[in-house]
Structure formats: C-alpha cells, structure tokens
Amino acid sequence: MDLIPVLDLIGGNAVHARGGSRRHEYRLVSSCLTPGKQGDALALIMAYKAALGATTCYVADLDAIEGGRPQRSLITRLAKEFGGTLMVDAGLQYPANEIALAASGTGRVVIGLESLPTFTPLRAALVALGPDQITFSLDLRGGQPILQGMLAAELGGSPTAADVVRKVVSLGVDHLIVLDLARVGRDHGTDPRVLAAVRAVAPDATIMAGGGVRTWSDLEALADAGADAALVATALHDGRLGSRANDLLGEQR
C-alpha cells in the first residue's frame, strides 16, 4: 500500500489540520521534516520529495474549500517544484477552477463531497476532464457522509457512505478518497469498517483512505480493508512512522 503525504494550505502557509472543522484556528505545521521552517509549504513538499521520496502529494486548498479565493499561483509553483503528481482539492468552483487546476499540471483534481450541492457539477467535471483527472473525496464526519443542498434528496432517505460511492461510481468515478474529517489530526485511529463497505460496492476502484493514521498497525488494517493508499500527515510530522515511511514512500518511485 502506498503512503501519500498531505499538505493543507491556508493563506499561503502549510497548516496542521485537526478535526476537519474550525479551519481558521489551524496552526502552522511544525514538522520534523522541516526543522526551523514552520508553515513553509514549499519546504515541506520538497521534504516529502527529498527526504521521503514521495512522488504523489495530496493538497487541500482550505481557503478555496471554505469559499475563498483559490491559491492557484502557489499550487502551480508547488506542482512545478515538486515535479510529481499533486492531487488538489480546491473546493467546487466548476468549471473555471477545475479546468485551471488541470491545466496547471497538478495531475488530478479532487472533488469533495462536502463541496457538492448536487451531483451535476461532478457529472460535468467528468465529461470536461475525464475520469483520469478526477478523484472523488467521500468526505465523512464520524463515518457519516457530509451532505449539503439536494444531495440527500437525490440519494433518498438517509444515505450511507456506501450509498454515495455506489452513486458516484455509476457516474464514472474510478478514483476515491475515503476521508473522515473528524479523525484528521486527532490521534483517534482509523475506522476500517467504512472502508470495507466502500470497497464492497467499488471493487475495481482505486481507493485511498485518510484521517486518523497513527501507526503501522493502522496502515495494515486499512490495507486489509481494501485500501490501495493512505493519506498521512501528523504521523509524518511527528516522526512516529520512522524510517519505514521512507521505504514505503520510496516504493512509489
């Protein structure tokens, strides 16, 4: 299973996401990978590349996700300097934002459930950019889908994570992130049960898991539940995964 390091951005800085809410209170990242360079987004992504050998990085533009102005110039610079694949969630401002991200060479555009008012923008993005450039993020809080607008009505009743995935796979999505925001940065561990339910309805999809990875046993549990990759931030910043992170990330090269 691959490890994919995470970079969360607010106001041009790298921040440490915790709990997926009250984002304006996130603090600058202090990472063992970039001593003395607190919150330096470029230094951090280059450390992911140089120190860990990462070739893929997940980037969340939290300004854009919260409805603000996308940090497009910064993301373009990060993509150029990193030289690998960026998976970028910059909120839903389709079509201009998604097309611009794709044109910047970031690699894959992430469309998060929490930003979707209906499934219409996802359909449009899949048509405009193609499934190869779209990753759908199943945004959860405590295992429950984060739904807004008419999504719940479109799905009917009280949809589960599996219900949402069944729908987006029918639209053509073949890359998924299962991201429990309540577990991000909280040291609560992962919940492989939701991942297993998602894998059951999307047996052929590439599935990445995020939120709560603390230890190698967490990663092993996610792999057993069907994850192809895991998004990791805190456990890289505090060094708890140790040198084995270098080995696993290095396998991506």
Report on the architecture of this protein:
Helices cover 36% and strands 23% of the residues. The protein is built from eleven helices and eleven strands. An eight-stranded parallel beta barrel has the order 1-4-5-6-7-9-10-11, surrounded by eight helices. The relative contact order is 0.16.
CATH topology: TIM Barrel
Give the spatial strand order of the biggest sheet.
Answer: 1-4-5-6-7-9-10-11
Largest sheet: 8 strands, parallel, barrel
Annotation field: number of helices = 11
Radius of gyration: 17 Å
- Average pLDDT confidence is 85
Number of domain units: 1
Question: What class, by secondary structure content?
Answer: alpha/beta
CATH level 1 name:
Alpha Beta
What helical percentage do the residues reach?
25-40%
Query: Can you tell me the overall shape?
Result: globular
Low-pLDDT residue intervals, each spanning 5 or more residues = none
CATH architecture: Alpha-Beta Barrel
Strands, count: 11
Report the sheet-strand fraction.
15-25%
Task: Tag the structure with descriptive keywords.
eight-stranded parallel barrel; 11 strands; TIM Barrel
